[in-house]
Amino acid sequence: MTSLTAIALVVGLGVTLPLYAGMEATIREHLERLARGERVPMIAIGCFTEIQFAAINEGRAAMELHRLEQNEILSMVGICM
């Protein structure tokens, strides 16, 4: 597993997510490729802190959903369902 860096992705409500080393450039490249109409693969970009991951699983349990086992953040930008 790639080591975490101080680089953080900021998402809604000021929550920061630690990214793997080099992910800022990779995400930028993927967004540029998407802007050109290209497809990009799904990639692992980081992982939640233990506190974030526990909070996610508590919320899922409150909604009677199964707990997540893998603490990894995937980028699925541009993937159509």
Question: Can you describe what's shown?
Answer:
The model is unreliable at 1-10 (pLDDT under 50). 9% of the residues are buried. With 81 residues, the protein is of the alpha+beta class. It is elongated and about 40 Å long. It is built from two helices and four strands, in the order E-E-H-E-H-E. Strand 1 and strand 2 form a beta hairpin. The two termini are 28 Å apart.
The gist of it:
The chain has 81 residues and is an alpha+beta fold. The chain is built from 2 helices and 4 strands, in the order ββαβαβ.
> Which structural category fits the helices and strands?
alpha+beta
Uncertain segments are: 1-10
Task: Describe the oligomeric state of these chains in a short phrase.
Answer: single chain
Strand content: 25-35%
H-E string: EEHEHE
pLDDT averaged over residues: 81
- Total number of helical segments? 2
- What is the global morphology? elongated
Secondary-structure map:
Layout: E1 4-11, E2 15-20, H1 23-35, E3 43-46, H2 50-62, E4 73-75
Antiparallel strand pairs: 1-2, 3-4
Descriptive tags:
81 residues; alpha+beta; two-stranded antiparallel ribbon; 2 helices; 26% strand; elongated; disordered N terminus
